[in-house]
Amino acid sequence: MTSIYVWTLATVVFLLELAMVGVLATAAWLLADRGWTGWLAAIGTATVVVALWALFASPMPVVDVAVLKLVVKVVLFVAASLAIWSVMHRADLAVWFAAVAVVVNLAAIVPPYSNYGGFDVPA
């Protein structure tokens, strides 16, 4: 049971992170020209977001400081929620995205998931 829970939660966390990157890249594309400059903005935004995530907020970050991890996660998920709200004009979806992000990330910091760090899943 624990193994199923941990893997399911890890999958949901990962999909939520991918959605956050996609939302921010889409918002950059919409705010830019939607032409080649939009594509450059989307690719640049996705690159910066993934780099920030890898440096500070990934399960095995380069800079392993708990406060920075929390700040980066909060800033990026709030930015994605605000992008859904203001750029895509979907307040309902923004609220749902923020609520799911809070619930899933809180579930990921309590046992049994936090005991395994999302990697060493029991057999």
Mean pLDDT: 88
How many angstroms does the end-to-end distance come to?
Answer: 10 Å
By secondary-structure content and strand pairing, the structural class works out as: mainly alpha
- Round the Cα radius of gyration to an integer and report it: 16 Å
Discrete helix count: 5
The sequence of SSEs as H and E is HHHHH
How many separate domains?
1
The poorly predicted ranges are 118-123
Write down how many β-strands occur, each being a DSSP E stretch of 2 or more residues: 0
- Share of helix among residues? over 70%
Strand content: under 5%
**Largest sheet descriptor:** none
Keywords: Membrane, Transmembrane, Transmembrane helix
Pfam family, one: DUF2568
Organism: Gordonia phthalatica
Protein name: DUF2568 domain-containing protein
Plain-language structure description:
The chain crosses the membrane at residues 6-32, 39-60, 66-86, 93-113. It comes from Gordonia phthalatica. Keywords: Membrane, Transmembrane, Transmembrane helix. The chain is globular. Helices cover 76% and strands 0% of the residues. It has one domain. Mean pLDDT is 88; it is low at 118-123. By secondary structure, the chain is an all-alpha fold. The protein has helices at 2-31, 36-57, 66-86, 91-107, 113-116. It contains five helices and no strands.
